[in-house]
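Z., the sequence and structure:
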Amino acid sequence: VPFRYPQNGHVLYLQVGTRVRGPTCIFPGRTSGGELLRPPVKDTIRNKDGGDKDGDNDDKIELVTVPAVPGRLLRFQGRELHAVPRPTDLWLLKFVQGAPDFDPEEEWGRSVILFNTWGSEPPLEVPIDEELANDSTKNDVLCCCRKKEEWRPVVPANSSEDKDQNGRVSAKVWLLGDYRRRGHQMQTVKLEASESLRQALYEEQIVTSIQMFPSTA
């Protein structure tokens, strides 16, 4: 049975500690770790102006980093591979040991609301409360967010791509789930990127598009 994906995934950032970066990292056109090593799904590669264009067969892997900013709402294609590296430079570390800090909350906390929206086919084996769905009083819930017409879309800024392989850094992307879910035998995928990857992971505000490549090591 193939995996079923929501139409869109969402992350609403509520509170972010003063020492937390916690960017959400999205790989457009890739649905699993194994697809990081294969050409992307066509028509899901972004143009420089934020639109889409047909995919090609080069070895570039797009990564979009979205800093955790209180009040920001991230919306992305529900089938796209995404992650939150913790610590922030997890993918750049050769070895990982110990546990990340969680206290105090005002420094290390990261509170978000995650939710999915589905199209004509809802998720399997999730009961729907028809009575609640048809309850007209649900529209009386106090709304604390800005009206949609006041929202501002954010187009990812393109980082300076380093085409010189000698200037690239190694990155090890950790994957969750079993082999079938990962689509890859190992729990990590080795990639390469310019040093701008580190800058994007630690960026506090700007959404950034990074070009990564399969490892040559």
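Confidence is low (pLDDT under 50) at residues 48-57. The longest strand covers residues 8-16.

Let me know what you think.
H.
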